Structure to design on (359 residues):
């Protein structure tokens, strides 16, 4: 029998979440963001089950190459564009689209000849101050792209929202207005919305939306859960109890003896730890499900195991199923306890886990 720790991927939930994007942004095309191994869900697996998307967005050539080698023929955009001129020939050969966000990329394109002009998206920095041309650079960059032989003249336009997860933050409306003002005279496809934009700011939907985290059943919103947003979790981190014991009052639990039993009490040992991607810094009190019953983590997570307080579920037995996040236990809640974000937990799931697909 193999180690019980596993990651369960619900493919029907993935498709449901894409349908939810379509429901919210009815008049927009959808670029599904599947970078970072589809946020830990498997790049090719996600692409195959997001076939109804209009395009895919990835971070680098390695991801795009993997998709093309798997016979994924949909439009693919490199979200950070080319890193060097040496990549441009392969970008052309693989029929990829590129995000152009910096004058150095304009220079490399102007020095390059490719077999077929590339489709470029020009990114405008409307306030996030990460990637993109500043407002005063937009007209010059636009003109250079329009006249560049390596670029298809139909240049697309995009920006990225910094605080759309906070519905009441006025910065999002300011960013949308800035983008609209800077691009008003440019009749070309445009894109603003990330997942939070899709969920909370209909005016950001425009021609294309670029959902990422919501496709995997996670709400990016600060004031709502996936359930509230009609999203379904795609990933469940699952294991089983491999030991149950009763400890006496004042006995210590785990490395560092950081947690002491307040009374005689049952504890359970779960076959999962930080070597599987569970956050080592998750504190005592972080929720865990044992046979669907909420219990809590106690002590420090080890590499391969963690310990839970079974006082709320004293009838638990060896072999009982455990959910560390996912179905029945939102990863957002676990991330909040651990002082991190769901993105980090999903992307950190280890390849050694047994993979189970359904749906």
């Amino acid at each position: 029998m193999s180690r019980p720790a596993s990651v369960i991927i619900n493919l029907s939930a993935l498709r449901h979440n894409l349908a939810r994007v379509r429901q919210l942004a009815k008049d927009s095309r959808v670029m599904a963001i599947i970078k970072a191994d589809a946020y830990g869900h498997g790049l090719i697996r996600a692409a195959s089950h997001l076939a109804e998307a209009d395009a895919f967005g990835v971070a680098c050539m390695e991801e795009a190459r993997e998709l093309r080698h798997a016979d994924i023929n949909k439009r693919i955009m490199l979200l950070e564009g080319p890193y060097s001129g040496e990549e441009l020939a392969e970008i052309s050969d693989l029929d990829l689209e590129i995000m152009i966000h910096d004058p150095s990329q304009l220079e490399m394109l102007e020095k390059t000849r490719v077999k077929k002009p590339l489709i470029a998206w020009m990114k405008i920095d409307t306030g996030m101050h990460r990637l993109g041309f500043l407002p005063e650079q937009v007209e010059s960059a636009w003109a250079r792209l329009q006249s560049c032989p390596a670029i298809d003249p139909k240049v697309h336009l995009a920006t990225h929202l910094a605080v759309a997860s906070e519905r009441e933050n006025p910065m999002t409306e300011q960013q949308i207005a800035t983008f609209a003002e800077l691009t008003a005279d440019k009749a070309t496809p445009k894109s603003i919305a990330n997942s939070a934009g899709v969920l909370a700011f209909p005016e950001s939907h425009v021609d294309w939306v670029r959902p990422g985290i919501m496709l995997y059943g996670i709400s990016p919103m600060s004031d709502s859960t996936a359930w509230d947003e009609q999203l379904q979790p795609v990933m469940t981190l699952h294991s089983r109890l491999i030991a149950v014991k009763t400890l006496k009052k004042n006995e210590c639990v785990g490395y560092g003896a950081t947690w002491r039993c307040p009374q005689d009490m049952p504890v359970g040992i779960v076959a999962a730890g930080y070597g599987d991607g569970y956050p080592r810094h998750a504190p005592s009190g972080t929720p865990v499900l044992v046979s669907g019953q909420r219990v809590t983590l106690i002590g420090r997570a080890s590499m391969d195991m963690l310990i839970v307080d079974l006082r709320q579920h004293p009838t638990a037995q060896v072999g009982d199923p455990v959910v560390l996040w996912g179905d029945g236990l939102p990863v957002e809640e676990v991330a909040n306890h651990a002082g991190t974000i769901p993105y980090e937990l999903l992307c950190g799931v280890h390849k050694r886990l047994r993979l189970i697909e359904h749906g």
Q: What stands out?
A: The chain has two domains: 11-216, 235-358. The chain has a mean pLDDT of 97. Residues 235-358 form a domain with the Lyase, Ornithine Decarboxylase; Chain A, domain 1 fold (CATH 2.40.37.10).
